[in-house]
## 1
Amino acid sequence: MPGKSRFALNDGYSTNHPSITRLRLTRSNRDPDAKLSYELVSPTTYSCRHSLTICWTKDQDIVYDFVVPGVHAELHSRSIAFTATTVSTPSTIQSEGYVSTAALFSLFSSSIKEEKTYLRLPSAWRDLYKEFLDIKKEQLNAADRATVRELRSIIQEQIEHEESQGVVLTNRFRKRNQGSGAVSEAEDSSRGDIRSTAGSNKLKELWKQKTSTLAYQHMLVSRSSLPIFGFRDAALATIDRHQVTIICGETGCGKSTQLPAFLLENELSNGRPCKIYCTEPRRISAISLAQRVSEELGEFKNDLGTSRSLVGYTIRLESNTSAQTRLIYATVGIVLRMLESSQRLSDITHLIIDEIHERR
């Protein structure tokens, strides 16, 4: 067919019926009673394209962030239809298999629980699924590179603006966006003394109450056994001297849990207000790490995100924080949306980008 790309498997798989692909869709934990129907949408039988409609028996909360190129998806509350638009195959068997694999990928590739489903597919469809994974990875990498370029541009504009106004970047992010005019050291010092008169003592008292609990003292013993604990003072001194610090360590040494806690403890014990954001690449990581750090600070299980806790988390469609929260674990997308808002990161004193090796 003119203008249509053709897809064909190796001869050894050309008659391999996509029954396993169908089975994974109909017998999935999502809805075991789902019904599938195929329809030939191409005008010829020698250049086949199919449409696959999945009808659920109950409403589905389907979220997918990727559709296979050349396959159109139409989503409803209890059904979803995938239609091959620019890819055709020599036979109906291959065409059904192609649109089935594309549907399987679109629905389950973003699910941690079902991300290994494709391993049970026939080898030909498994290889096709892997090709889709490569395409998705490249698209995500391209989006990440574009985001990095945009962030660099924003930071550079901010630096140029502050330099033009005579503002010196010191003490990390604390003075960023606090004024549009030049600020002398004497004026800044006097304002700091006024603010710290009541606030500093209050923060010190808050931290004293936290550290005096038996739960905190008990958890401190286990925390001190982690490798990063011996580098606490060196890490804090380095962060205090530099605006950007890169910390490397083996998996399990305590980077994700201890470093944010070190910063929180150091700021509050010195009576300095702080708002620490730690970005995580996955939502489950943000939640589990926030729970762990909250526990290590001696807080009760249900305190996380409440006024009784200093720790919280923010992910898509869910924010578990309060006015008392000082350490927030968040997904990267949340922080990026904060950058797009009018306030940007003006209220954040520390920004920790965890798992930096995944940001390529």
## 2
Amino acid sequence: MKNTFSITHYRVYKNGTAVIKVSANDFKPVLACHFKRGLPAESFLDADGHGIFSYSLPPDGQMFYGYCTRARAMEKAKAGALAYISQMIREVERGIERLRQYRLDHYEDLNTELLDANIRRLEREMHIK
């Protein structure tokens, strides 16, 4: 039996808590990509015939960090999750402040002008049913 050398690292997705073991020896098939003269066929050409490539980051849910040890990955997963929870709490607190300010700004309209009794009275005056 052959002795195989395995290189592993641990992956933690952004705002996630799962620690995923990834082996460098786990080769997975890649989608076929067609090349033309060493360049991907999906490239675009500018007016001079030079290739234009667009690069972009993956969606936020697919972003991850890699760590050499499981313990380090677990520490970072916990720290990242706690930071994300704190961020969401701050967003809620800002939302509550905006709600309070809206309520203060429109208090008089909501409690005097826009009462159902006033609306029904206006409907009767305008003969709308």
## 3
Amino acid sequence: MAREIILYPKKASKNELKEFVEKRGYKKTEHLWNWPKGTLNFFWFDDDDYKSIAGVELDIYPVDNTENKYTNNKWAIHVRNLVSGSIFDVREFNDVVRAIRKKFGGTLIGDYGKNRYAPLWDDDSVPMQRGIEREYKYHNGFLKKITLALPNEIFSIPKTDDAKIKSFIDFTKQQDPSTVIYNGLIPLLISTVESILRSYFIIILKYDTLARQNLENLSKIKLDFSSIEKIEAGIYSKEWIVADQYNFQNLESIKKAFDLFNIDIYKTLHNKILRKSNPRTDLFQLISKLINDRHEIIHNLIFDLSLSKSVFLNKLNIVQNVIDAVTDEIEKKYGFKIDRKNIM
């Protein structure tokens, strides 16, 4: 889902439009769409204080005969922004069209009618909130893609209460090639946990003043010459270097990392019960088992040959609940709420 506007300038050459958008900060890019020959594709994204979530796409393209009713100019501007875009993305979506129209004139046609711009909304978000929201949407979007791509079992096996037949069926299920795929995706689930918790840590450390002050008292952070060079060159941030001291695939290490913000990861995960039929099994135990499964697969090539699609999806649900539980705790700690809709 996206919002779109086409601006038909009154008089503007391809090069004039190109120079204008480049001066505004748009970068040349490639586009998956099969645009007409000669089209120039650009992209804008404001990473300062996590202002952008989706950015803005802009295309300078040659007008065809069907569009002559709007303009006699040979070139037009197509601007696109995903529904998941932030208020800053939508504001730029409007402003770039306004700026081009002010300089070159013309008519705009879009989702909101002729010569009408996208409506804005009230937004009082803070940088940490926007960063957490961006990472939440990105990582949950990745899990969604896994769900959509997940194949069904190849063997279709009926259910039965007969013990002997059931034993044979269980053996047959272990020969299903799909089991290899389900097991092979478990490391990706843990990588998702690792990635989002690392990202959360970096974002919070960047904006939590007290945590940064406490960090100055820690003498354990070691920087080699290469790291210092990369910080000075802008390749690494100081927060990234600090995050690199922790292993975000290890719960004990994750706890130590978030202790810096007075967020108790153990308590957060122990307090969340997923299985109503077995109230003693909390989220901490479930994710611990999943981390161990990942270890066995990666290092020992030990697969669970009985793993079915439904059981794998239960494991994916564990990861989603870990993300939600930690996100809930961050929201509570820092007093904001992120938008959990419009997953990318």
